[in-house]
Structures are given as C-alpha cells and as structure tokens.
Amino acid sequence: MNAIAQALIDKIRHLPPQRMAEVEDFVDFLRARDDEQRLAQAAAKASEASFAQVWDNDDDAAYDRL
After folding, report:
1. pLDDT digits (tens, 9 = 90+) for 28-43
2. Rounded-to-integer distance, Cα 18 and Cα 39, Å
3. In the chain, where does DSSP find H-type helix?
4. Which of 1, 10, 19, 36 could bridge across to 15 with cysteines, CB 3.0–4.6 Å?
C-alpha cells in the first residue's frame, strides 16, 4: 500500500462512524462517476464508425474547415 493510501486510511479511522459513512458514500459516488464516464466514452467510440458516413461528406466539408 502506498503512503497516500495509508495516510487516508489513518485519517478515516479517526472519524466518527457517521462521518465514515459519508466518506464511503463519497467514494461510491466517485467510482460511479468514473464508471459512467468510461461508459459514455465507450459508447462514443463505438458509434464513431456509424456516424463517420454521415459526417464525412462533401456537403459538410465547409464545416470541417471551421
């Protein structure tokens, strides 16, 4: 375990139980947010090929230069 993680654990150990619950909720929130961002990025990447046909055309070439 690295020093930062150990320092964080030591700080959490000194919190009252209700504060520990808040820390746990916050950690869960951070993990969920990261998961949502990864999912959104994966969906965007997966849809690139489908949208490429729509986006890559001569009629829209003027917008590519903006």
Report:
1. 999 999 999 999 999 9
2. 32
3. 3-13, 17-55, 61-64
4. 19
